[in-house]
Amino acid sequence: MGSVQWDGVDSDYAKLLFITRETVVEPGDTIITSGFNAIYPKGLMIGIVSEVKPDPNQRDLDIKLKLSVDFRALEYVYAIENQYIVEKDSLIENDPLNFE
Known about the structure:
With about 100 residues, the protein is mainly beta. The chain is built from one helix and five strands.
């Protein structure tokens, strides 16, 4: 589990953050969404790992992803409002099995 962040430099690449050195990640691995948040559904392809090296400043890996979408080629995007987000958040917050 990690987070993907674009560095604002090259629209073809992003960084995969918060992956510890104990995790086996290799170039060519596919990165997909987990579905563990209210924004992105499970199973959407984010990109392919293009480079992996130890981050010299942390105990994490420095992972570079080749994004699966060419953002320069997008002409139209849709903003969709989740009308059930308040209900979903309430259910998650009141879940007796929620161990957070």
